[in-house]
Amino acid sequence: MTKPVLAVVGRPNVGKSMLVNRILGRREAVVQDLPGVTRDRVSYDATWNGREFVVVDTGGWISDAKGMAARIAEQAELAIDASDAVLFVVDATVGITDEDEAVVRVLRQSKKPVILAANKVDDQRTEAEASSMWNLGLGEPFGVSALHGRGSGDLLDAVLAVLPDAPERAEEEVGGPRRIAIVGKPNVGKSSLLNKLTGQQRSVVDNVAGTTVDPVDELVELGGELYRFIDTAGLRKRVKEASGHEYYASLRTQGAIERAEVCVVVLDASETISDQDLKILSMVEEAGKALVIAYNKWDLTDEERRRYLTREIEQDIQAFKWAPSVNISALSGRNVDKLKKAIDDALAGWETRITTGQLNSFLGRVAASHPHPVRGGKQPRILFGTEAQNCPPTFVLFTSGLLDPQYTRFVERRLREEFGFVGTPVRVEVKARE
Ligand code: GDP
């Protein structure tokens, strides 16, 4: 799921951080809203009425080089770029200031929805002062008290009304057996592997919508757990012998990968790794599925072949070295039982969720030890990041400028070192403010 992002903007001392605390319903956010307290990365995971979103608290983003109004406008601009909606906080007890006006000008230019919070409405008396905020021309001001919590429920309802919905991940059966596809080029031993896995156990035949008498998927028990093997009809039937089978086989492969959560790519260890093998591995990665590599026909390999294979893997499979692999023989059954753990590990990696807090403290450490090189006199900075989605883990980095592709790859490598992500593609997207 992609979480929508809410930016909280406003000049210092209006109570942004305290309001963020209210929204989060906890004490985690830093409460001081002091100018000069630099908090570069300030995004938090929030939930309201069962909906998840990310809150970006913009206090202290910009150094003190320029005048206050310009600084705050710039800060607001950054936040607005990175967000889906903006919560603009003003101080009802102070009234409209020049700095507030500067933010409004930026807000007007953007197309982002804005919710106006008039903070410090601690009692009835200040309510009238909140009404004066209509003069900002941003619509209804929501009178709130971040201190006491007053009005924050209504405010959050209004925020959620303008935040876009997180698109639901299309899932065939939530909570059902995990979906596995066995894929690979012809004759590597896919059918043999499926036969070995189902073994003597009665495989549960599962007709999809009764449209076919062939089992399309099979439910197979591995180590006491049920798994759904996707589109096994193509493996069971000798479709290979039909004319044009390669074309249909590749269509089926694509379809099976799309429906699966995890793919077991079967390679023939006794033969040189081919372009077709690599293409199938890439298909799995591009589809964003968890990946396990099975080197089959191990019984046919001698020491010399294994030496060559090691070299081929180093050369060609480097890009997939995050995938767990098992050396198996579908014929003898050697190591076939080890596939279950590899599959479970890959699924766990695929589903990994890193909290926004963890992620940003990691990004802070990366930036401190390996800052982005200066480009044309400027140094792009990662302002904050969020795992917008898992399955596979997908990170969005909001930056002050375009990152070198090498730097993005470096961050991806460091993410893997830090958090593992065994068996899963990892995506890093950069949203740069030009
Ligand atoms: P598929 O096209 O990928 O489904 O491959 P098959 O399962 O039909 O296997 C192709 C050929 O390889 C068959 O003759 C199998 O008996 C043989 N085969 C499959 N796995 C192994 C294995 O682990 N060792 C050996 N020696 N032969 C195997």
From TrEMBL:
CDD domains: EngA1, EngA2. It holds the Pfam family MMR_HSR1. It comes from the Bacteria. One of its GO terms (molecular function) is GTP binding. Keywords: GTP-binding, Nucleotide-binding, Repeat, Ribosome biogenesis. GTP 2 binds at residues 184-191, 231-235, 296-299. GTP 1 binds at residues 10-17, 57-61, 119-122. Residues 4-167, 178-351 form the EngA-type G domain. One of its GO terms (biological process) is ribosome biogenesis. PANTHER family: GTPASE DER (PTHR43834:SF6). Associates with the 50S ribosomal subunit. Belongs to the TRAFAC class TrmE-Era-EngA-EngB-Septin-like GTPase superfamily. EngA (Der) GTPase family. GTPase that plays an essential role in the late steps of ribosome biogenesis. This is GTPase Der. It comes from Propioniciclava tarda.
